[in-house]
Amino acid sequence: MADSAFVDATAPDGVTERSLDARHAAFLELARDELDRAYRLAGLILGDAGDAEDAVQDALLRAWRSAASLRDPTMFQAWFDRILVNGCRDRVRRRKIVRFVPIDPSLDPAAEGDPFREVLARDELLGGLDRLSADERTVVVLHYWTDLSVEQISARLGWPTGTVKSRLHRARRVLRDHLNARSREVPS
Amino acid sequence: MTDDLDIRLRTSLRAVALPRAPLRLQDALERLPLDVPAEQPRGLGRLRPIGLLAAGLAAVALVAIALALSTGPRGVGPIGPTPSPSPSVSVAPSATPRPSDATFPLTIVSVLLEDRAAGRIGGEQFVVSGFWTDRRGDDACPSEPPSPLLACGDGQFGLTDEPDSGTGPDLTPYVPPAVLASAPYGALLARLAQPVNVMLLGHFDDPAADACPPAARQACVDRFVVDELYFVEDPESPAPTVDPSPGPFPFASPPPAPFTTATCENVWTGDQATDPRPEITVLGWIASGELELDHEPFVPLPEAVYAIVTTNEVPLTLWVDDAETGERVRRWGMGVCYGWEHSGTFYGALPGTAWKVWEDGRREKVDSVLELESPAP
Questions:
Q1: CA-to-CA separations, B171 to A67, B109, B177, B194, in angstroms, rounded
Q2: Residue contact A5–B151, C-beta within 8 A
Q3: Closest Cα of chain B to A94: distance in Å?
Q4: Which of 72-111 (A) contact B at CB < 8 A?
């Protein structure tokens, strides 16, 4: 069995499991280094700080449960990204089924002072991210913020490159239309 | 081709000042439960016996099929009364727990679909074997699914009888988040440059179908929900290599030293004019079981620690007032300085080397350099 970052192939039977403490410490160390980036990635995809925090927390737990699947610690970021992004996409899909609308918008604490909503809304172009589907938003963030190529996104998420390209293409069209619509709104 | 929109998107996204992860998240990470069982990667050799499974399964040629008769076809069309128009919280489809001693009927995609269409399969669990590969066309995974049960959490993959997915029946199951995040699925995704032989434990008639809109109800009922993925190792793949010189630490190569000799020297407290200077030996990364200390560590040690020791006896504490006599004392010993990445640095003495020393030169052997002076009650 191939060695993993958390399993050591040294015993005569092929696998000796490292102590739980050692695996835990190694996992914590890798995850600490990725925490800020993961939170920002989730925040850009979800557009909401609270959801981003929940998504990262869920991903950490899932990742820890799946830690034995990580073969190479240098691939931690790519491996964790996949878990996190899948969780974010699932959250966005659930939003479309259940939407809690506050009776009084002023009572919705999430509407006030959300750092991701505020920074994205401030930018004319980034405000259009809300018009994208979860998958389109994901490829836009991965391509333009984390600077991954189409092939790298494909490998990281397990999507065919054609799928990544088509989603990126559609996202760009939606954002271009959004910009054009905004420019027409500007009073002369 | 890069155009203005590309440049603007990249510039805008990178210019935004994004917040750091809140302290709550850092706390949550540090509090990850130690005893959550980590999922182990599965391979063909570790699959639990499931009745008719043969080793070296090649899905199409070797499957022997034994299908339990269903309790009766679910029928076609909406199930039950029409729901009220106001949606309540929907039941998200989730993986069904596998009983520890259960065995399951084994089938292939074409037979599964045929029997399902004929009403011979209801909501019981099956293992279906096939090749996980790119789906043909985009209609099986709508970008705006009317229900999470019709979404494709994994992207654009599905199961076919043949590795060539160009022809023949195909199955696009629902893969719940728990399965997507599982170790076998992670291993599967790493190998999807070509079709991969897998077996899926799953079921139709998921309860979440009841919450689907009426127009999509049948599609939801007929969606195969994956409970578990068995990743079938490719017998042609090269045997994994084993590091010929495995170290005690969890990484393929040792991390850099977490501290320097200067860090340790700052703690060893001697008077530069009169006391001996520490003669230092860097042990480097050692298995924590090899670390000899004159006291129990204050925190659980990882598997490997970085250690520096002195090979001579040196003052290891400042002068303090002896609680019993009020006289000034300090402790000497052969010092140990140890830690690991992000741990900070811990100090102690090698066992059997600690002394309590008075200003007038008297010495007394003590068990530990860390014996604390406590004021008399």
A1: 29, 7, 18, 17
A2: no
A3: 7
A4: 72-73, 79, 82-83, 86-87, 89-90, 93-94, 96-98
pLDDT of residue B80: 28
Residue A165: Cβ-neighbour burial (10 angstroms; 0-12, 13-18, 19+): middle
Chain A touched by B132 (CB under 8 Å): no
| First-to-last C-alpha distance (Å) of chain A | 68
Per residue in A126-164, pLDDT tens? 888 888 887 889 999 999 999 999 988 988 887 788 888
Dist. CA B217–CA B222, nearest whole Å: 9
- Give the torsion sign (CA, B159, B160, B162, B163): negative
Cα-based torsion angle of the residue sequence B231, B236, B237, B242 in order, rounded to the nearest 10 degrees: 110
Of A5, A38, A163, the CB nearest to B250: A5
Please state, in angstroms and rounded to a whole number, the distance separating the CA atoms of residues B288 and B300: 10
- Do residues B147 and B212 touch, judged by C-beta distance below 8 A? yes
Cβ atoms B300, A19 nearer than 8 A: no
Q: Which chain A residues contact residue B250 at CB under 8 A?
A: 5-6, 8, 18, 22-23, 25-26, 73
Nearest to A116, CA basis, from B18, B8, B26: B18
- Those residues of chain B that have pLDDT short of 50 are 1, 37-91, 100-101, 136-138, 234-252, 372-377
Instruction: Return the axis-axis angle of helices A49-65 and B23-30, rounded to nearest 10°.
Output: 10
Interface of B with A in 37-96 (CB under 8 A): 37-41, 43, 87, 89-90, 92
Report long-range pairs for B78-85 (Cβ below 8 Å, ≥24 apart).
B78/B214, B78/B217, B78/B218, B79/B209, B79/B210, B79/B217, B79/B221, B80/B210, B82/B214, B83/B210, B83/B211, B83/B214
Tokens of A111: 């509407």
What pLDDT score does A148 carry? 92
- Looking at beta carbons, which residues of chain A come within 8 Å of B34? 20-21, 24
Structure tokens at A156: 């990281």
| Sequence-ordered list of residues with C-beta below 8 angstroms from that of B377, at least 6 positions apart, any chain | none
* A67 within 8 A of A80, measured Cβ to Cβ: no
Q: Which of B66, B205, B202 is nearest to B122 (CA)?
A: B205
Q: Which amino acid is at B62?
A: L
Name the residue with tokens 């002076």.
B373
Cβ partners under 8 Å of residue B243, min gap 6:
A3, A9, B252
The Cα–Cα gap between A138 and A149 comes to 13
Q: Give the chain A residue whose CA is nearest to the CA of B305.
A: A22
